[in-house]
Amino acid sequence: MARKKKVSETEVSITSVERDENGLISQPKVEYVFDDRGFVNWRKMVKLEHLVPNRQRTQESDTSQLEDKDLLILLGGIKELAQIRGYSSVEYDVKTPSADYVVATCKIKWIPNFETESREVVFSAIADASPGNTHSFASDYLAAIAENRSFVRCVRNFLRINIVGQDELGAGSGSKQASTSRAEAASLLSFDPKEHLSALMSQRGISFDKLKARLVKEAYEKADTFNSVKDIPNIKIFELIDRIQNAKKT
Question: pTM for this one?
Fold first, then answer.
């Protein structure tokens, strides 16, 4: 029996994201959908897997049969759209006027593309969270809920998407969302992208030194000063996770 070739660390490749003169991703290939004016139809770019029925409005389970007003977008779909559109920074301003009320403002600096006449655009959105507009377990994570809501609103409003994000909606007492376990909620809200990247690198046999060398080669800002994954900004962390997950294993 022929022995399997051992994959060396140097054989692991990371696919670089490349954009054309219009600011659209050319590598890896992305199937864009355009409207009759020639702009990207970001609503149509949302995959069906990231859409769920709004149980406060309908009992229909087939999302392909529902109108936008009866749908909700999952957080994963919003993140995917943001990465495809492209941004250079995400900032949060979180305030707590009282112990049980949190207000978060999300500000995203979007990279230039043909829709903004090749200009960088900064867009922001505000959201709040309190026991009155959250349900069960979510009341213990008001800051995280407010941050998620502000991010979702910032992305979908900028991209002209009129479907409400699931994170923006306080669930009704009889919905499946309300029956989600407290442990599952805590796990989702405490998701650490840096830990996820570290685990993914370990699975793929990618050392930090190799990752750092790639970032330096790509002239990523301050990459030569990074000493660990913790030094890499989250915006780059999400991109690296996506690149590694989509890289072909050799």
Answer: 0.64
